[in-house]
Fold this sequence. Notes:
Elements: H1 2-11, E1 31-34, E2 37-40, H2 46-49, H3 84-87, E3 97-98, E4 105-107, E5 110-111, H4 114-122, E6 134-135, E7 141-143, H5 150-154, H6 167-171, H7 184-194, H8 202-209, H9 234-247
Antiparallel strand pairs: 1-2, 1-3, 4-5, 6-7
Helix pairs in contact: 4-7, 7-8, 7-9
Amino acid sequence: MLDCLMTIKRTVDPTLAFRYSCGHGMCGSDAVSINGTPNLLCTATLRDWAKRPASPAAGMTDDEGFRHTGEPACEPGSADDADDACAGNGSLGVIELGPLPGFPVQRDLIADIDPMLDQIRRLRPYLEASGTLATTKDGKVDVFEYLQRPDQLARYEQLSNCIACGVCEGSCPVFAGGDAFIGPAALIWASRFINDSRDTQSMARMDAIDTADGVAACQSVRACTRQCPRGIDVGEEMWQIVAKVRER
């Protein structure tokens, strides 16, 4: 999808505005709405998202009352898509692009994600460890690191893959609907450090999200999980952090 927009910008409309950076699904800067669903331009493909006009299936009648016989029309994304008979005039169909839902629009496909980043910053997205250094028997600093067991790392390792693209926020009906909610991205970042055994501020972090616009605003719809480009089960993590905050 990103390649198509680049071609349009270079050959058709140089004023078209959209944001991108790495082009490989790692930076998260090119999140938009594709056919109403938040996703990254650089990982979305035409085959997956093109909406071909519906064709009458075999045995069905069209708008003029004619009954169609023969093989059913092939479905988008099927192996028959490349077949000329299935493709009709060769057009892949229509793709509707828009800015990421739930954020102010700056221009064309560019949404202002600063509100999301501000919420993440508000929750101090960095490690706050004890500062105790490992020392030798002589009292000299041995190594400046905080050791963890594999099981401790596993509690937050997947969460640390979040790239703050905003796809989960645009998918959330509460956040995108305009309700007062800090959003799933901010809660994921909070959960990442709450689950880190090296962090000493877990209770303070849970206090910070135990607010009316924090975990209390999450309605557990789990729409935030569906399109996460990093494979984070955001909905499950929301459930876990809500339970942890309420049980503390």
